[in-house]
Design goal:
Layout: H1 2-10, H2 15-29, E1 34-38, E2 41-46, H3 53-63, H4 86-96, H5 101-128, H6 132-144, H7 149-157, H8 178-196, H9 201-217, H10 219-235, H11 243-266, H12 268-271, E3 278-280, H13 288-291, H14 299-310, H15 316-334, H16 337-349, H17 355-373, E4 374-376, H18 384-407, H19 411-422, H20 426-435, E5 441-444, H21 445-456, E6 462-464, E7 478-479, H22 488-493, H23 502-508, H24 513-520, E8 532-536, H25 545-549, E9 555-559, E10 563-567
Parallel strand pairs: 5-7, 6-8
Antiparallel strand pairs: 1-2, 2-5, 3-4, 8-10, 9-10
């Protein structure tokens, strides 16, 4: 740690990259969870993906860990399984030290993460090439290099505005996916250990611990990490006579770490009761690039593919079509890292790849393979998160390529290197300056009052009305109550919900459909299973279960201009 600080002090130009990155990253997450007034709409605001994902994490933090086994915050009576909850548990521990979950999630942890991430990036970059220019390039590209989605918005609208929303991207978006961001704090030490070479049992134990913890943060990262380590160990030349036995022991330790992580954090047998977590659907995600009108739409190519597939034949034409689809998918998603990907081929031809590079490139190909071939239960396109780790790893080779272009001193290569840098950052610019304040959702002041009151009431399951989302203007602040499955009530009251977050429940493998049907049918027996009904007053009467059931034991315990809270306690 001290060596990194000394290095940064000696090479102060690194601050020209680090400081803008610090403020850009924090600008994505810091504004959320605070009280604002916009055009008379006052309340606690959340911006971008924070309006869903962060609130879900807050719901877990405020509800799940107060009981053992841990409980599901949005499906009463169910345990918490099939989900990466490690970061939420760490925040829960911080709340026990007096820090609010909102402060921990939106303020404290992002700062801690950025500092640790930067230290690890510098340390790792110096392991690759101990040159200040390379370290600066690696930092710059790790922080800011995004996709080529801005080329699509330029074509369709003449502007890069909105380009950062086209594709799920880890760059800067990491602040909207803290579990992924923190998984990199464990992924980088693994890379550092492997880059140093000369494995021993102590290093393998350290790697095993990192793998176990990564599984608790991101399953996708765990899968890519274990493949990376397995490949490296298999490629390692162990000089002792018992080399094969040592390799076997190393692989056994790694395997046990991953299996322990799976069982401890996910309880996969329970999740599998509702079907396989992943399904085999080749090119499902890839096809969106040429099927979507707002992307690289190729109607003729798409129609030709459908026609050939209808014939049930796999021939040269279909292979060419799918190869083009894959090429376009990788080009637009990887951005300038696409050229870093091909740079690895150049290194292969020049025989400049060592076992570390071979393992890393194998992991990149593996993550692309999983992204291309699989879909996920609940949210089919969630497998894009496998690609996030390929994107991160490809930064190594993009930085090397740009560094080698610049260091030659030849004007043509220097210009190419500068062009690669400049073409890497537009989507990050769009996110930092255009999109960080778009799509705001908020909890209005009257609801804040209601939630504070509900939080003080005795423990009980809360029922919220099921309804379709209201039509909305994306530029206007949207009350969170407009969303039928938001978990904000659980997040801000510490009380579990009878039902919410259908999409997330599907990802976790919870069998929720029967309960959802009961709610949609306004089955009055549902009210026998809850302690409170949280009713938004301006909801249509048809959406209010109490208007139909009229239970005798319902009692109004809170009422203001926006919310009525009923107690159903017997």
């Amino acid at each position: 740690m001290k060596s990194v600080v000394d290095y940064a002090k000696k090479n102060k130009l690194l601050l020209l990259v680090i400081l803008p990155a610090f403020f850009s990253y924090l600008s994505v997450i810091f504004p959320s969870g605070s009280y604002y007034c916009f055009g008379g709409d006052c309340g606690i605001y959340f911006f971008g993906a924070q309006g869903r994902d962060a609130i879900w994490h807050l719901a877990i933090i405020e509800n799940s860990f107060n009981k053992i086994p841990f409980v599901n915050p949005v499906f009463s009576g169910e345990k918490l399984y099939g989900y990466n909850w490690l970061l939420d548990w760490l925040i829960f521990l911080l709340t026990k030290l007096g820090m609010s979950s909102v402060t921990a999630y939106f303020r404290f942890l992002p700062i801690v993460w950025f500092i640790l991430f930067t230290f690890l990036l510098i340390f790792f970059a110096r392991k690759i090439k101990n040159n200040p220019l390379f370290v600066m390039l690696f930092l710059l590209l790790s922080y800011f290099a995004g996709s080529f989605s801005y080329l699509l918005t330029l074509f369709h609208t003449g502007s890069i505005k909105g380009s950062s929303l086209l594709f799920p991207q880890p760059v800067i978006h990491m602040m909207s996916n803290l579990s992924y961001a923190f998984s990199l704090l464990l992924f980088l030490p693994i890379l550092i250990i492997l880059k140093a070479g000369k494995l021993n049992f102590q290093k393998i134990i350290h790697i095993g611990v990192c793998l176990f913890l990564i599984m608790g943060l991101k399953f996708y990262g765990g899968a890519i990490s274990v493949f990376l380590v397995f490949t490296y160990v298999i490629l390692s030349n162990i000089s002792q006579e018992a080399g094969m036995i040592i390799k076997f022991k190393y692989l056994l330790i790694i395997s046990l770490s991953v299996i322990a992580g799976l069982l401890f954090f996910y309880d996969p047998l329970r999740s599998l009761k509702t079907g396989q977590i992943f399904g085999f659907s080749p090119f499902a995600l890839v096809h969106t690039i040429t099927e979507s009108p707002n992307l690289f739409y190729l109607r003729g190519l798409t129609n030709a593919r459908y026609f050939i597939q209808a014939q049930g034949k796999i021939g040269p034409r279909l292979i060419v079509i799918e190869s083009l689809n894959l090429f376009l998918f990788l080009f637009f998603y990887l951005g300038t890292r696409f050229f870093g990907f091909f740079y690895t081929g150049f290194l292969l031809v020049k025989k400049k790849l060592d076992k570390f590079d071979t393992a890393v490139i194998s992991a990149i190909l593996f993550s692309i393979l999983l992204t291309v071939m699989l879909v996920q239960k609940g949210v089919w396109w969630n497998t894009i998160q496998f690609l996030f780790y390929a994107i991160f790893l490809l930064t190594i080779y993009l930085a090397e390529m740009v560094f080698n272009l610049i260091k030659t001193g030849r004007i043509q290569r220097l210009l190419i290197g500068v062009l690669l840098i400049l073409s890497s950052v537009p989507t990050s610019y769009d996110l930092a300056f255009h999109q960080r304040r778009t799509s705001p959702v908020f909890i209005p002041t009257p609801e804040i009052e209601a939630l504070k009151f509900l939080k003080k009431l005795p423990e009980g399951i809360v029922f919220i009305s099921n309804r379709e989302e209201l039509s909305k203007n994306i530029n206007d602040p949207i009350p969170l109550s407009n969303f039928q499955d938001s978990s904000y009530i659980a997040a801000f009251t510490g009380k579990r919900l009878y039902f919410a977050e259908a999409q997330t429940l599907g990802v976790m493998g919870v069998d929720y459909k029967q309960r959802l049907q009961r709610i949609k049918k306004k089955d009055c027996t549902v009210l026998e299973e809850v302690g409170y009904v949280y009713e938004i007053r301006n909801f249509p009467k048809v959406d209010k279960i109490l208007a139909r059931c009229k239970p005798k034991n319902s009692k109004i315990v809170f009422k203001n201009e926006s919310v009525i809270i009923y107690s159903m306690m017997k």
